[in-house]
Each structure stands twice: as C-alpha cells, then as structure tokens.
Design brief:
By secondary structure, this protein is α+β, with helices and mostly antiparallel strands. The longest helix is centred in the C-terminal third of the chain and has 25 residues. The chain is built from six helices and six strands, in the order H-E-E-E-H-H-H-E-E-E-H-H.
Amino acid sequence: MRELCQVSREAVHLAIPDGATIVYLFKEVSSENVLRISSRTGSYNYMYYTGLGKALMACMSSEEVKTIWENSEIQKFTPNTITDFHTLLNELEETRKRGYAVDNEEHEMGIGCIADVVRDADNRAIAAISISTLTVRMDENFLSGQSLFCIKLHRRFLLCWDMFHQKSIHN
C-alpha cells in the first residue's frame, strides 16, 4: 500500500464493509502531497458518500444496496452528496460500466477519489482501495492514467497474496 502511495503520489485508503459503513484499515498520504483528508485508520463512514463504499455497493444486489441505504443516516455534506436513492442506483450502474467508483466532492469539498474493490480467491468483493486527490487534479489523465493503473495492479497483487495465503493455511 505504501508503494502504491509513492507511485501515485496521492493519498491511498483500504477499507472493508461493516454493515452500512466502511471501516478504514489503512491510510497513507504521500510525503510529496499537502492533501489533508478527514479519514483515519479505524474510523467509519457510510458507504453512500464514499468512493470506497460505492465500489463495494456496485458489486451488491439491489436488495443489499437498499438495505445499506435504509440503514444509513443520509446527510448532505456537500452540494455533490447523493441523497436520493435512485440517483445512487444510477451512480452504481455508471460505476459498473466504468469499472471503478468515483467520489466527486461528496464528503469533503475539494477532495475526490477513484476506488475499486479487492476480491478474494472466490471473486467476492471483500475490501476496497482508493486513491484520493484534490478535485482540481482529477482530470482525464488522473482518471484513466497512472492512478487507475496502480489500483488495478495493486488489486491483482492482493488477490494473488490472498490465494497464496489460503494455500499456505491448507498445507
């Protein structure tokens, strides 16, 4: 994860689902970056306003997403926060088509991210990883370039590690 942070030169998060929320397991901010994000390791956020949460929800059934929505405290943190369930469903559909989730200043003004899921050996989404940056830097190059490549590469690494770990447990 630290290497991903160094390569992308942005903030990197790893989170797992916990009911209607995500819990941050890891956060690293590049030493070259002055980016300040309110998240911290061990803290929780509702899924509906985070890229990490939307990446995870995009892998869920509509019934699971509805349950998460109904168990969330819906608040409008910024003008971009999704507070309508049908808008969220449309955003999740876009996430599936795009192949990654986007947070466009939905929790904090000026901060955005791209996020994707980490899958286990059975192809289940078990966690999500994100790269966060200032929204002024979230141009086409950021969205389709090095940062997205880093997420996909790191996700594959974690899957390989999980498969290796499962084999070593069974041996």
